[in-house]
Each structure stands twice: as structure tokens, then as C-alpha cells.
């Protein structure tokens, strides 16, 4: 399995931190409803809504960034594969033939 990059570790740490903040705010909101102080509930509800919005925005931003990085990486890999095939056509044909033989043998065993 590939090792995690520092960027992935930072993203994971930030996600855990965001979820921890959101969880603690929701817990405060739940405990505040027990004493039924209307001003306290309103304040905590506003804080919870703000943290939920902030967390959602950060998660969406990270999701878009991860999608873009994955898409760019896939394009780079596809380009590298295309260049290899054009630079080494006979090797590519040989690899394709070997892969076809292996798949044919595996299917033939059924």
C-alpha cells in the first residue's frame, strides 16, 4: 500500500478537527436544551449552524480539490501510457498478447 503524503495527513487531521468541533458544539446544544434557557439555546444553535456551515464548506472545498488532483493524475498517467505505446509499439503489442493469453487461460480453466 502506498504511503500517505503529507498533504493527505494534513487533510485527515483537519477533517478530524472539524468533526470534533462540530461534535462538541452539538453536544453543547443538546446539554443546553436540558436547562431550557431560551437565550442559551438560541446562542448555541447559532454557533452550531455556523460550525456546520463552515465544516460543510471546507469539506466541499477539499472534495473538489481531491477530485481535481485525482483527475489531473489520471490524465498524466494516461498521457504517459499513450506516449509509451507510441514510442514502443511492438513491446505494447507483445504485452497485449501476453495479457490476452493469460486471461484466456484463466477463463479456459472454468
What does this structure look like?
With 110 residues, the protein is mainly alpha-helical. It has one domain (6-108). Helix content is 91%, strand content 0%. Helix 1 runs antiparallel to helix 2 (38-87) and helix 2 crosses helix 3 (89-108). The longest helix has 50 residues, at 38-87. The radius of gyration is 26 Å and the shape is elongated.
How is the secondary structure organized here?
Layout: H1 6-35, H2 38-87, H3 89-108
Helix pairs in contact: 1-2, 2-3
Please give a handful of descriptors for the protein shown.
single chain; 110 residues; mainly alpha; 3 helices; cell inner membrane; DUF883 domain-containing protein; YqjD/ElaB
Quickly give the structural class.
Answer: mainly alpha
Q: In total, how many beta strands?
A: 0
Could you tell me the radius of gyration in angstroms?
A: 26 Å
The separation of the N and C termini measures: 31 Å
Largest sheet: none
List the domain count as a whole number.
Answer: 1
Total helices: the number is 3
| SSE series | HHH
Fraction in beta strands: under 5%
What's this entry about, in short?
It contains 3 helices and no strands. With 110 residues, the chain is mainly α.
Amino acid at each position: 500500500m502506498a504511503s500517505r503524503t503529507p498533504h493527505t495527513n494534513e487533510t485527515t487531521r483537519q477533517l478530524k478537527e472539524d468533526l470534533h468541533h462540530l461534535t462538541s458544539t452539538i453536544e453543547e446544544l443538546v446539554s443546553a436544551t436540558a436547562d431550557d434557557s431560551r437565550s442559551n439555546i438560541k446562542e448555541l444553535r447559532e454557533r452550531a449552524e455556523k460550525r456546520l456551515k463552515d465544516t460543510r464548506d471546507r469539506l466541499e472545498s477539499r472534495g473538489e480539490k481531491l477530485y481535481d488532483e485525482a483527475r489531473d493524475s489520471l490524465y498524466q498517467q494516461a498521457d504517459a501510457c499513450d506516449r509509451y505505446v507510441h514510442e514502443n509499439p511492438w513491446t505494447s503489442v507483445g504485452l497485449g498478447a501476453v495479457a490476452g493469453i493469460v486471461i484466456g487461460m484463466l477463463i479456459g480453466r472454468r
